[in-house]
Amino acid sequence: MAQFLQATVYGLLQGGLLALIAVGFSLVWGVMNVVNLSHGAFVLAGAYVALQLHDAVGLDPFVSMVPAALLLFGFGYVVQRYLVNLVVNGPIFITLLLTFGLELVLVNLMLYLFTADHQSIPTGYAEGSLVLPGDVRIPYGRLIAALLALALTVALVYVMRRTRTGLSILATGMDRGAARLMGIKARHVYALTFGIAAAMAGAAGAAVGAVSTFSPADAGRFTLFSFVASVLGGLGNMWGALYGGLVLGLVQAWGGQLLPGTLVNAVAFAVLVLVLAFRPQGIAGKPFYASRLEV
Amino acid sequence: MNESPEPIVRARNLSKRFGGLMAVRGLDLDLYPGRLLGVIGPNGAGKSTAINLLTGHARPTTGQVLVDGQDLTAARPWRFARAGVARTFQIVKPFRGMTVADNVAVGALFRARTDGGRRTVTAARRAALETLDRVGLGGKGDLAPAELSTADARRLELAKALALRPRVLLLDEVLAGLRRGEIDPALQLIDSLRRDGLALMMVEHVMHAVATICDEVVVLHHGEVLTTGKPAAVFSDDRVIQAYLGERFARRAAEARRATEGNVR
Amino acid sequence: MSIVDVGQGQEVAGPATPSAPVTAASLRRRTTPWVLLAAGLLFGIGLQPQLYPAQERLVSTVLMFVALATAWNLIGGFAGYASFGQVAFFGLGGYGTALMMVHLNMSFWLAMAASAVVAFLFAALVGAPLLRLKGHYFAIATLGVAEGLREVVTNLPKLTGGGGGITIPTFGPNAPTRWLGNDGFYLLFLFLAVAVVAVAIVVASSRGGYALRAIHQDEDAAAAMGINTTLAKTLAFAGSAALTGAVGSARAFQLQTIYPDRSFDVAITVLMVVMVVLGGSGTVLGPIIGAISVAFASEWLRTNYTDVHIFLLGGMIIVAVVLLPQGFTNYVRDAVRARRFSLLENVRRYRL
Amino acid sequence: MSNRAFAGAAVVALLLVTTACGSKQAPEAGGDSGRLVLGASLSLTGATAKEGILTREGYEVCTKVVNDKGGVAAGGTKYQLEIRFQDDTSKADVSAQLVDQYNDQGVKLILGPYGSGPTDAVAAVVERNGQVMADSAGADNKIFAKGYRRSFAVLSPATSYVASIVQAINDLATPKPKTFAFISADDGFSKTATQGGISKAKELGFEVIAEEYVPNQTTDVSSALTKIKPKNPDVILGSVHLSEGIAIVKQSKELGVRPTGGFGETVAPPIPDFVKTLAGSAEGVLGSTQWTPKTAGSERFFGSATDYAATFKTQFGGRDPVYHNAEATAACLALVLAVEKAGSTDPDKVRDALAALDTPSFFGPIKFTPEGMNVTKQMAVIQIQNGKAVPVWPADSAEAPLKWPATA
User: Fold this and answer.
1) How many Å apart are CA C215 and CA C224, to the nearest integer?
2) Which of C289, C234, C290 is nearest to C75 (CA)?
3) What confidence category does residue C6 fall into, taking pLDDT thresholds of 50, 70 and 90?
């Protein structure tokens, strides 16, 4: 029984980390209908920023989430404003290909700058853990990451629902033409959205660096998890990525216990296809987003 | 007009629920070849939903749709098209990437094989050019839909529907947005289709057009049939005026009519 | 995604007055693609003796991608359903053939045909629920199918050898069909490419082509005009899958040993999409030009800039997508028709 | 299409066909212009980029040392050694294509790619082209069970990776553990190594209480560890690559999984990244390695293992070599010795010389079975002791006693 409880706890914490990784991806897809294949590379960039700060000034990775987020925000804003905006009105696979090209460029740039080594940002406490009765362990590092995922999602919901910028982002996402009529500078708002998403990815990267290892080859894996979590959770709802991440974490944890270890990914993809086939709007998404007819 | 006793399209007790909203409730409707049925009603009365129910673009919650005796109640839209039921869309839906001629050729390619004609691409292209002439778009076959005027875009919608050589044609506000000068030729075209024996139904807001051309008019209000009858009778019915213009106008119209009846006698 | 392609050059000519002689123009319009295809085949056969084994192997890979890109174009280009899981059928074809040859000792040719049928049925089965989805959702659902299939293959070690891969016996007593050799595979991929392009030409100029393009532009309007959209989409998806499966089967026989992570590698699908989009999706010529140029470009970059070739490939894709979002063929056709060749204007076309 | 376009198309077609009948250029001469050229397919990008770069460093040391010592003497002429690199992006089919390209350029002597998958694909091509391959990083025994005659692996086969750790624990560990748990990545090489380890453990009378598999290249092995935890094994052995290897130790600490004896892993512990990322938690972990600076044997090019370590250090700015560097140099050395012994660069003569090679070297004894495996060379076992990979087994090349129980 303790074994199952341990798996559940670990699954939830892993889910929190996945949610943190996926929330930016879900925002960009939900609002701008752009699938950002280079999202994983942004997460990785966040990890490397945190690593450099740790090596240079010994900054704790969870603290260096802030500088990583700010740096990535700027980079994301520029990428959207001067690159993705050029094709955002095009057919869907145009944005897919543009961001795929961007991923190749970013991953190989990082491979060139930071070599292919498997890195991790050592912290004294990350691997220590809270011990519950029955020797069920809650590792500090993953706990902090999961709590931060919750906090960042709440912050995002607040920004989106309560602030002017947030509402302008949602409005532009709903109907670009109408939003522009009301004086919203769509180009700026889109770049802002992409910047926020990149910042979230950067923060997630720093957390990943603290709790596990990363190398340039992991970018694809982060993007894939973001896909699955965003779709599971459902678009158009700021909580979507959180629900999706937690469900994915649990599916992998329980799957790992009940089935041979290697089937875990197969279970995750099976769940993805089933959700899409029978409930495209996901757990908490809005049908509008699922039925949106792309050009 | 040949008054054939048997209707081509027979709809009984049609209703459609979207979540909590009953868009259409208890709709009975018959379309006869060579007759034009007008459908009017304030916005949100369920007019477009009615058309969608009769073309398979919406599945009825209750009720039945028979076309030529064939039960197409929950059939998919292409089965209606193959059964000879064609329609235009309120917001024009051209195939933007194709030329005007190809837009129409699609209809010719996928209509029912009633006349045994070969449905090859060349045959379809030839049929398309003929249909374009029929609706007054001759010579514009090579333009892209985006290059057409509003009136021409409506003509293209009509041409695409006619390419199916339909026996029933449902027009969804085909006159909306047309200038005065463009409405009359459109009405003449519709009249010629009626004379060809097509069963026609026209959802319209242009009241004077409905008054002049429709054989019969159905008034929908909050998804239900308010009244049916000849255009003149329907337009003077208090309930219709009230539905469109609200309580005050209905009363004022009633007093004005009583006054004129007084003078006449 | 406009439809005009080699098969329908008629639009490029002057305005056709209704009474224009339709027969001469349409006769030429229908035969031109076949003439070019025959010329391509002859060129391919003529080129072979000039090549070294490695060049031959490279051209075989390019021909493979011409076939894969053209097959993807049937569903992604014509119908506009961007399948991001096309490699599922590529891998299914490969593993289907490997299993049939290893466990059932079936000849390669029979196994290839059977694998294509298996891919067809699998796509039709998977297509039923997924073809109801649109845009990104369809793309990601099919991606999920491909990734899922790879995991399933990895987890059947007794049958497929799992992560350790499976080897098709190609020489010695228990080899059902001897290995075709570099020359043999060059010809096999040449004929496969010609066959798939032929299918594309037939579809492009037939009722099916019209139906798929109509679905791509506006599915509701297409249904209202008598097109059974579900059947058309499923046939296009399953047909494209069968062709992709056959190519996958040939590739597996060529490689002799195949592994799940390489047979179901998402990079193969993305390469197909890059080739079709840059070449010009929704046309017959587009994927061919796209496949040849992208395949040679990535090979040239890999040999000459060994350390940074993927970095440059990424940069090339970004520049190409921004300058030619509608693809080379469509750009040329629009430019010729409108006599406007400026790329800058092209960039503004999809700008926010 | 108007007449003009139709005619144009036909002309283009004709032109294409005629150019196809041009003549073929003569293949480029290789190897006889005073240079001995070896072709290497390397994974400079992709999943095994890290190991690919280590392999290239090994080749660079070989070229520098051999040329400094006057090059390769064969048939009375002195050849300067040159190794050509191409990036196979860690993909097996690209490696196969590269080796075909080398064959066209007249390069018949091949240095194998990193990893069992690519090596298997290249072995088939080498066999067909009549080339010769010295394999530095494809250890899966299955490659050498296919009847290939022209590929030779200088490193010990996969089956010995885990078995050597089991043997070391059996010889040195007091108190002797009883129960073993195995965690294996799901690729051919790792699974073969695990089977080798399990049969050795049973042979030595240990009890195997768990055999868990995890997805290849994963960084999350929590499911496997959670299943193993209640069984309280004495020893946990991982047949893994770098990412799974680090994950096992890191997540064991998180989940409170503490084998009473200790951890042992293949491939990961000797690589510096292991100690750098795990810091303190890496202490005491055992690791099997193909080579250590203490490996016995020497020859005229590189001297002893310690000499090799010093040579590497000077060439690479004071960095210590890892076994991936050494095995790459050894493969290069094997080809050089074979060319010298055969006295010619003719592939068939070099193949026969390589097959008959039987020499000590800085990398240990190099002697091949008819199938091409180097079974005489024994693996070594290291233990991480205060941050360094210290050789502890076999006894003759041990630098320090085994610290046991390792997780004390």
Assistant:
1) 11
2) C234
3) very low
Of all helices (H) and strands (E), which one includes residue D2? none
DSSP labels, C150-178: HHHHHT-HHHH-GGG-EE---SSTT-SS-
Domain region containing B37: 1-84+166-229
Segment C170-213, tens digit of pLDDT: 777 778 888 888 889 999 999 999 999 999 999 988 888 999 99
Residues D273, D203 share a domain: yes
At CA D293, angle to CA D291 and CA D297, rounded to 5? 75
Is residue D384 within 8 A of residue D283, CB to CB? The reply is: yes
Based on the fold, state whether residues B5 and B130 are members of the same structural domain.
Answer: no
| Chain D residues inside the 8 Å CB shell of C172 | 147
- From residue A110, how far is each of A40, A46, A115, C273, C311 by CA, in Å? 12, 11, 7, 25, 10
The total domain count for chain C is: 1
CATH number at residue D364: 3.40.50.2300
Has residue D405 been placed in a domain?
A: no
Mean pLDDT for all residues in chain D: 87
Could you tell me which chain A residue has the CA closest to the CA of C276?
A93
Looking at the domain assignment, is residue B234 inside a domain? no
Q: Give the end of a domain, one of B137, B163, B189.
A: B163
Instruction: Give yes or no for residue A72 having a pLDDT over 90.
Output: yes
Question: What is the arithmetic mean of pLDDT over A208-229?
Answer: 88
A83:C322 CB<8 A = yes
Say whether both B79 and B173 belong to one domain.
Answer: yes
Q: Are residues B56 and B176 in the same domain?
A: yes
ipTM: 0.82
Among the ranges A174-178, A230-234, B138-142, D106-110, which has the highest mean pLDDT value?
D106-110
| From D3, D20, D87, residue closest to C302, measured CB to CB | D87
Domain of residue D124 covers: 35-156+294-377
Q: Which chains touch C (3 or more CB pairs under 8 A)?
A: A, B, D
Give the one of A118, A216, A252 whose C-beta lies nearest to D246's C-beta.
A118
10 Å Cβ neighbour count for D85?
A: 19
Contact (CB<8Å) D256/A7: no
Which residues does chain B have within 8 Å of residue C17's beta carbon, measured at their own beta carbons? 139
Same domain? For B5 and B69 the reply is yes
* Cα–Cα dist B29/B39, whole Å: 10
Band of the pLDDT at D381, cuts 50, 70, 90? very high
For residue C223, give Cα distances in angstroms to B125, B193, B199, C63, C230.
Answer: 20, 23, 21, 36, 9
- Is residue B261 situated within a structural domain? no
DSSP secondary structure, chain B, as one string: ----SS-SEEEEEEEEEETTEEEEEEEEEEE-TT-EEEEE-STTSSHHHHHHHHHTSS--SEEEEEETTEE-TT--HHHHHHTTEEE--SS----TTS-HHHHHHHHHHHS--TT-----HHHHHHHHHHHHHHTT-TT-TTS-GGGS-HHHHHHHHHHHHHTT--SEEEEESTTTT--HHHHHHHHHHHHHHHHTT-EEEEE-S-HHHHHHH-SEEEEEETTEEEEEE-HHHHHH-HHHHHHHH-HHHHHHHHHHHHHHHHHH-
Asked if C255 is an interface residue toward chain A (Cβ–Cβ < 8 A), one would say no
Specify the CATH architecture of the domain A2-290: Orthogonal Bundle (1.10)
All chains having 3 or more CB pairs closer than 8 angstroms to chain D: A, C
pTM: 0.85
Domain total in chain D: 2
Per residue in B133-187, pLDDT (tens digit) is: 988 888 888 888 888 888 888 889 999 999 988 999 999 988 888 888 888 888 8
Task: Give the nearest chain C residue to D192 (CA atoms).
Answer: C164
Query: In angstroms, what separates the C-alpha of A262 from chain D's closest C-alpha?
Result: 5
A261 close to C (CB below 8 A): no
